[in-house]
Prior knowledge:
Photosynthetic Reaction Center, Chain H, domain 2, disordered C terminus
Amino acid sequence: MPLYKLAEFDPNYRETFSGDDVKSLDLYTEGGMKIGSVADALVDQDGRFRYLVIDTSLDSIGKTILLPIGLSRINYPAKRVEVDGLNKQQVEHLPEYRGGITVNEDYEKQIRRVFRPSTTEETSELGMFSYQKEPNLYNLNEQSHQTLKLYEERLVAQKHRFKSGEVAVSKHIETQTAQVTVPITKERVVIERVLPTEIGTAVDSNSLQFQEGEVARIELYEETPDIRKEAFVREEVRVKKVVEQQTVEAQDTIRREELDIDTKGELYVDETGEQKSEKI
Length: 280
């Protein structure tokens, strides 16, 4: 059965696993000793994990090996992988894995021989091999890899813009009767007959020139009011919008799930993901 690197099988594998990435997780033994880190994973044609690609750093040994997935316990919150019983001798006997190597049937046989007794090997290799025949090596331990998601509610504040009203500014014309006082002048002729100062004095009639017709002309003027209307700027009105900010508080009841752990027997359970020794 062909095997594929994780990114080759699913380029978006991190989204598939809700953001979790098995790569770069550290590898620890049950005793808490770090022996390497996960460089990649190999999956079968159905996308099932079969091997973890491990870069080991155990004492003076430093090589890349394939670890059957059934021997591991992946702990994403603690960013680590724990392995059952991997020791220096097993690492030495495991075939080295390189990127260009084809993982064929013979290669996988060499891996299985390191992790099982020879009697089991003879029985399991009879006929065509399948991963279902080796559940301890190739099946994830569901009891060790159960994942529970705890949910909580949060208040999410959003703003919606809506039309709350409008202001229309217009003009109208009002009429009224206005009065204005204009002083005007008017000329008139006043003819007065008065007694001469030389009344009774004789005048030589030969020296006088008696006249007929018009003897004087006086032009008379008068003013008439010239009333007209002119428009003037009386007032300016400016129309603009002003944005006012205020803080609105809201409250509601939200829910959150908490984990309740009910154990039977004298067990040590570490909720942080760190392993603790059993009480004897």
